[in-house]
Design brief:
The longest helix is centred in the middle third of the chain and has 36 residues. The protein has 2 helices and no strands. The chain has 54 residues and is an all-alpha fold. The mean pLDDT is 84. It has a domain of 33 residues. The N and C termini lie far apart (61 Å). It is 76% helix and 0% strand. The chain is rod-shaped and about 65 Å long.
């Protein structure tokens, strides 16, 4: 019985890690799309009215 509970816990932990990894992968894809499609990100320029932190 304890072995069964341990195995179930192991599979739940592995499944949880995959859920987190897939969520991070989706966020990275969104960032890549944003960087590829935004004209200001592509050119390195700032939109009008944006003040630099520097």
């Amino acid at each position: 019985m304890p072995d069964t509970i341990g195995m179930v816990g192991l599979f739940v932990a592995i499944g949880g890690q995959y859920l987190v990894l897939f969520q991070l992968y989706r966020m990275m894809n969104r960032l890549d799309i944003e960087l590829a499609t935004c004209p200001y990100h592509r050119s390195g320029q700032r939109p009008p009215g944006v003040v630099s932190d520097e």
